[in-house]
Task: inverse folding
């Protein structure tokens, strides 16, 4: 509402101000028309100046504040103000200067000496004309006085009336020297007594000179007053006086009044010459000040109006630069700026639409990527996506688990750099490089990687990612660890072998043993001592070997069968103490060092199988320590989260090179009497409990076997279920 | 000079005051004597009539303007007020009478015109005219009805000589110039 009426208020204000300025100029000129209003007019102008100063101050404050704050567009606004102000102020100052010059010179030109002289001459001419008339009336009055000499009473009045009519006088008065009226005659209807002769009149007559005077009359005319002595009395005290008043002819009086007025006006203007110039200069200055202030305000206002769309555009551009594509600017006008604003709005609309599409695409890509990451995370296969220069783009967790590398921060890093501390990845990188150098982008290969923890069998498949320009956009390497699968296959095969051996060999052994014993029993008594001894020795060997073969078959049978697990919670520490005490009693020469974590005491597992596991490990260690000096077996337990780690270390010869990789395979042994099933059974028990077993050589020498078992039975059952499923 | 100004500001202030006083004194000397010599009222025919006697001398600026042909105006302001208890005095009568003094260049006479009645009297000299202006007689202030019946009231008069026929805008724009000169208020109490 206020904004709607604002232009009207401003318009009315400007109109009042312009009228006030015009009136001020007229009053300064001397016009009486607005003279009484001049104070109000001046007040309106001063009020206008104050209002303009306030408005300018407000806008200047805003401008300076914006300038100091480096508000976009303030510099442009400053230049615009300077330009507008300069364009307006320079001509104003020029016009003001020349106006003052012309004005002062114009006023000065009114007062040329010729004009003053002309007016003085005209005045003198008028006086001269009136002097002639005055002399004429003096003569007439003298003649009348001569006729009145000696007259009095009625005859005096008669002569006075006649003389007044004949002389054209307004009034004839006869008085004594003391001023007492003796008779008078008047033209028209005048009332009252005649005036008493003035002192000046009497004084002049006493001096013997007739009195004649031109006096202004009411209404703008003139009167000629003449006084003379009647008769030739030597003493004025006893003489009579005739005082005559004559009207100046109207035509002459008007002309004289015109000259008088002109002369008076000229004199007035002469007096006002300097104040008039000062008043005009002041008025002009006031007008100039108002115009300057108006121009300055206009410059401030229009610069703001002009720059505001530009400022809006700058702000809009900044908003767009910051990503706010919803910015819309109001169209200020239908000119080029308006076209620019419309184009800007169109641009932001298109940008917003494009961004929405991009966002949708990005969201879709993100969703796809998230799904892919979930898939990759769930995959048991290792997946590594590589840039063409073999920088890691992405790798899943399985890849890290298989290769023993943390790929969490690997994105963008070269694969070679990551492989520096990881032997498995290093070997895989070498294989990859061979194929890349050979120009192969699509290949499959089973790769055997060697490490301290044993061999890793990987089945690798590599494929190239298609690029936009036909070039390769990268490589995807997918690999599966088949080590355990191969081992499981091998175990299954050995299990089958063991089962068949147990079945095929165990059956004939008893008849062989019985036959050999029967042969000895039947034939021993009929033979010579030498032959009997030979037979005894041969049958004994047969029985011994058969017994050995039975033990071997039993071992195979034990390896082949998978008994049902009896999971229960038991004290692992106590079990280790029991088993180690038993073996220490069996061979006191061997020292046992136990480092058992109390937190690793409680274990839910098949205690019988764990006891067998310990027996196998200690048996292996004792056999390895046979003949060693200061044999020592270290048994350690540690609680690692939900895992219990059991480590058995001896100071024997350790695993010989190449044997570590096959340490858990059946029939792999360096002992002459070993079956090669001890560690194979250990691994089977560990895997039945969902654990892991690793072998290596201790840094100080000797074999080190590290077994990790889940502390809770659920893990064991789950591992069993996984194994059954496999 | 710089150090004097800042070290002794009181000295600078005193000097400025002395200069201002000297300037004002010079202006006063230049102005001549203009004051009310005496004034009185008398009751005559149920009307209070005012008589005022002035010492009337023209200031230099006024004389110059008059010599240049600009008429002078004598303004006589009179006020009658009545005392009130616990309240400011009440002004019951306030009047202003004007007389114009002009020089007629044709007749070379000095004309005094009562601007209320347009009656004019011409004089042969400026001194005569000023003398006539200085004797203001029988100005009717009010009839008895307007003033208290007990005849107790206060009167005050003031005279002003203005340079007449000047555009009002010039008077306002050049406000610092002395376009008029006034006497002090001449006050007295009227008692029966």
Result:
């Amino acid at each position: 509402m206020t904004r709607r009426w604002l232009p009207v208020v401003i318009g009315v204000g400007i109109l009042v101000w312009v009228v006030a300025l015009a009136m001020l100029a007229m009053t300064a000129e001397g016009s009486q028309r607005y003279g009484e209003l001049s104070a109000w007019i001046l007040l309106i102008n001063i009020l206008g100046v104050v209002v303009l100063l306030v408005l300018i101050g407000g806008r200047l404050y805003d401008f300076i504040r914006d300038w100091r704050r480096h508000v976009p567009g303030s510099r442009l606004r400053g230049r615009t103000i300077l330009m507008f102000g300069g364009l307006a102020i320079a001509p104003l100052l020029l016009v003001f200067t020349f106006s003052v010059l012309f004005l002062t010179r114009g006023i000065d030109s009114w007062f040329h000496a010729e004009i003053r002289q002309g007016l003085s001459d005209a005045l003198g001419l008028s006086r001269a004309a009136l002097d002639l008339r005055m002399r004429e009336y003096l003569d007439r009055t003298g003649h009348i006085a001569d006729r009145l000499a000696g007259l009095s009473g009625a005859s005096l009045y008669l002569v006075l009336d006649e003389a007044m009519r004949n002389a054209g006088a307004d009034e004839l008065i006869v008085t004594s020297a003391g001023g007492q009226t003796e008779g008078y005659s008047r033209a028209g209807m005048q009332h009252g007594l005649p005036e008493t002769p003035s002192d000046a009149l009497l004084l002049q007559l006493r001096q013997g000179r007739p009195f004649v005077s031109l006096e202004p009359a009411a209404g703008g005319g003139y009167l000629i007053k003449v006084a003379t002595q009647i008769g030739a009395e030597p003493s004025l005290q006893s003489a009579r006086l005739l005082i005559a008043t004559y009207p100046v002819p109207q035509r002459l009086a008007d002309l004289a009044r015109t000259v008088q007025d002109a002369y008076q006006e000229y004199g007035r203007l002469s007096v006002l010459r300097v104040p008039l110039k000062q008043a005009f200069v002041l008025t002009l200055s006031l007008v100039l000040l108002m115009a300057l202030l108006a121009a300055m305000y206009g410059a401030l206002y229009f610069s703001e109006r002009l720059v505001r769309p530009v400022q809006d555009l700058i702000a809009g551009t900044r908003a767009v630069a910051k990503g706010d594509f919803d910015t819309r600017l109001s169209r200020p006008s239908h000119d080029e700026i308006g076209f620019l604003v419309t184009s800007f709005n169109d641009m932001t609309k298109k940008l917003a639409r494009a961004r929405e599409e991009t966002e949708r695409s990005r969201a879709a890509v993100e969703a796809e990527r998230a799904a892919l990451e979930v898939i990759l995370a769930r995959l048991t296969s290792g997946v590594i996506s590589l840039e063409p220069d073999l920088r890691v783009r992405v790798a899943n967790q399985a890849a890290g688990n298989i290769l023993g590398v943390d790929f969490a921060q690997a994105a963008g890093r070269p694969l070679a750099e990551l492989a520096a501390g990881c032997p498995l990845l290093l070997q895989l990188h070498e294989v990859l490089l061979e194929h890349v150098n050979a120009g192969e982008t699509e290949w499959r290969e089973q790769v055997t990687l060697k490490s301290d923890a044993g061999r890793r069998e990987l089945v690798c498949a590599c494929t190239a990612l298609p690029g936009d320009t036909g070039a390769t956009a990268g490589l995807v390497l997918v690999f599966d660890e088949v080590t355990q699968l191969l081992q499981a296959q091998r175990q299954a095969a050995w299990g089958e072998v063991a089962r068949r051996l147990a079945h095929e060999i165990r059956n004939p052994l008893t008849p062989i043993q019985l036959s050999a014993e029967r042969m000895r029993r039947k034939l021993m008594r009929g033979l010579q001592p030498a032959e009997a001894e030979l037979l005894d020795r041969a049958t004994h060997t047969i029985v011994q070997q058969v017994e050995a073969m039975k033990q071997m078959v039993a071992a195979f049978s034990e390896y082949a069968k998978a008994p049902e697990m009896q999971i229960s919670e038991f004290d692992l520490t106590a079990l280790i103490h029991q088993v180690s005490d038993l073996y220490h009693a069996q061979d006191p020469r061997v020292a046992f060092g136990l480092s058992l974590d109390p937190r690793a005491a409680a274990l839910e597992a098949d205690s019988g199988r764990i006891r067998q596991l310990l027996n196998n490990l200690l048996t292996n260690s004792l056999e390895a320590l046979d003949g060693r000096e200061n044999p020592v077996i270290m048994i350690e337990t540690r609680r690692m989260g939900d895992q219990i780690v059991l480590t058995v270390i001896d100071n024997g010869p350790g695993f010989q090179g190449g044997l570590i990789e096959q340490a858990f395979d059946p029939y792999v042994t360096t002992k002459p009497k070993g079956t090669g099933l001890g560690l194979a059974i250990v691994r089977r028990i560990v895997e039945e409990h969902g654990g892991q077993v690793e072998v290596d050589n201790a840094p100080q020498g000797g074999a080190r076997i590290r077994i990790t078992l889940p502390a809770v039975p659920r893990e064991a059952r789950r591992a069993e279920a996984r194994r059954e499923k496999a | 000079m710089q150090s004097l100004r800042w070290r002794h500001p009181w000295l600078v202030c005193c000097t400025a005051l002395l200069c201002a006083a000297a300037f004002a004194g010079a202006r006063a000397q230049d102005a001549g004597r203009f004051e009310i010599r005496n004034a009185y009222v008398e009751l005559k025919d149920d009307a209070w009539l005012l008589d005022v006697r002035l010492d009337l001398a023209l200031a230099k600026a006024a004389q110059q303007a008059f010599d240049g042909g600009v008429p002078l105006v004598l303004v006589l302001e009179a006020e009658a007020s009545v005392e009130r208890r616990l309240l400011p005095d009440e002004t019951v009568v306030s009047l202003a009478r004007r007389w114009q003094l002009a020089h007629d260049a044709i007749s070379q006479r000095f004309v005094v015109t009562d601007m209320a009645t347009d009656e004019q009297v011409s004089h042969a000299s400026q001194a005569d005219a000023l003398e006539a202006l200085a004797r203001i007689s029988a100005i009717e202030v009010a009839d008895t009805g307007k003033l208290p019946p007990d005849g107790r009231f206060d009167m005050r008069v003031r005279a002003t000589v203005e340079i007449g026929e000047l555009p009002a805008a010039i008077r306002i724009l050049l406000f610092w110039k002395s376009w008029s000169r006034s006497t002090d208020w001449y006050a007295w109490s009227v008692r029966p």
Notes: Chain A touches chain B at residues 24, 27-32, 34-36, 38-39, 41-42, 123, 126-127, 130, 200, 213-216, 218, 222, 256-257, 259-260, 263-268, 270-272, 275-276, 278-279, 282-283 (CB under 8 Å). The longest strand of chain A covers residues 454-466. The mean pLDDT of chain A is 82. The two ends of chain A are 84 Å apart (CA to CA).
